[in-house]
Amino acid sequence: MTKPNNNTIIAPSLLSADFARAGQQVQDLQNAGATHLHLDVMDGSFVPDITFGHKLIADIAQNTNLTLDTHLMVDNPYHMLENFAVAGSDIITVHAEARGITHMHRTIMKIRELGKKAGIALNPATHESNIEYLIPQLDLILIMSVNPGYGGQKFIPEMLNKVRNVSSMIGERNILLEVDGGVNADNAIDLRNAGANMLVAGNYVFSGDYQQRIASLMGEA
After folding, report:
1. I need a labelling partner for 154 at 20 to 30 A (CA). Which of 12, 21, 115, 201 fits?
2. Which long-range contacts (CB under 8 A, 24 or more apart) does 100-106 make?
3. Which strands, in side-by-side order, build the sheet including 117-122?
4. Residue 69 CA: distances (Å) to CA of 101, 172, 175, 207, 220
5. Which sequence positions are flagged as catalytic?
6. Helices first, then strands: H and E counts in the chain
7. Whole-model pTM?
8. CA dihedral (135, 126, 69, 177) positive or negative
9. Pick from 110, 124, 135, 201: nearest CA to 163
10. What is the rounded distance in angstroms from the CA atom of residue 84 to the CA atom of residue 61?
11. What pLDDT tens digit does each residue of the chain (221 aa) get?
């Protein structure tokens, strides 16, 4: 059985913010104890929606001390990496399924060459064995527990076993295991017990008291 993680990072997702008040909400998250902010960049190609680009991330980076966890839900991400690195992203994650990536290893190494932590994301239908060869170069693995593209979806419970499998693949390596999609207080304990040490939560955090919601995801409330 995977050892539960007691030092869980909570990364509220900006996708669920009120963009008219986003600056204040980011500050409120920091005041509530958040240390990370999850930034879903969508291009209208890899997923149907379009969200924001590196300009917004640069503006946020100038006004917060939060670690910026940039999740590129985009096709052809390689040539975008430098823009997002310069903007202030601390972690840059690309999708294993993204079109236009001929060599994933090269893409991951490019992120690291830019001085950023490198992550790879897996959609629910993508088997974890597809990224096993990359593990020595990764700083983060993101398990999508919903099909990407929209906020507010329900958690797919079968992803718990995938989290366990990836946790076993990681072993003792210093790699963050992140889960994104439908995360709330009801499933957070199971995710932590399965080996996840970083949880993305959008609607759940933004629909209540930030401090209480973050604490509940960490198992402290």
Report:
1. 21
2. 100/75, 100/76, 101/76, 101/77, 104/131, 104/134, 105/133, 105/134, 105/137, 106/78
3. 9-12, 198-201, 176-180, 140-144, 117-122, 91-95, 67-73, 36-42
4. 21, 22, 14, 21, 23
5. 40, 180
6. 8, 8
7. 0.95
8. negative
9. 124
10. 11
11. 344 445 899 999 999 999 999 999 999 999 999 999 999 999 999 999 999 999 999 999 999 999 999 999 999 999 999 999 999 999 999 999 999 998 999 999 999 999 999 999 999 999 999 999 999 999 999 999 999 876 667 999 999 999 999 999 999 999 999 999 999 999 999 999 999 999 999 999 999 999 999 999 998 86
Q: What is the mean pLDDT of the chain?
A: 94
Give which of 35, 104, 34, 101 is closest to 74, Cα–Cα: 101
Question: How does pLDDT run across 169-216, given as a tens digit for each residue?
Answer: 999 999 999 999 999 999 999 999 999 999 999 999 999 999 999 999
State the DSSP string of 152-214: SPPP-TTHHHHHHHHHHHHTTS--EEEEESS--HHHHHHHHHHT--EEEESHHHHTS-HHHHH
- Tokens representing 111 are 């992120």
Alpha-helical runs (H) found in the chain? 22-31, 54-61, 81-87, 104-113, 159-170, 185-194, 203-206, 210-217
Rounded to whole angstroms, the Cα distance separating 43 from 46 reads 6
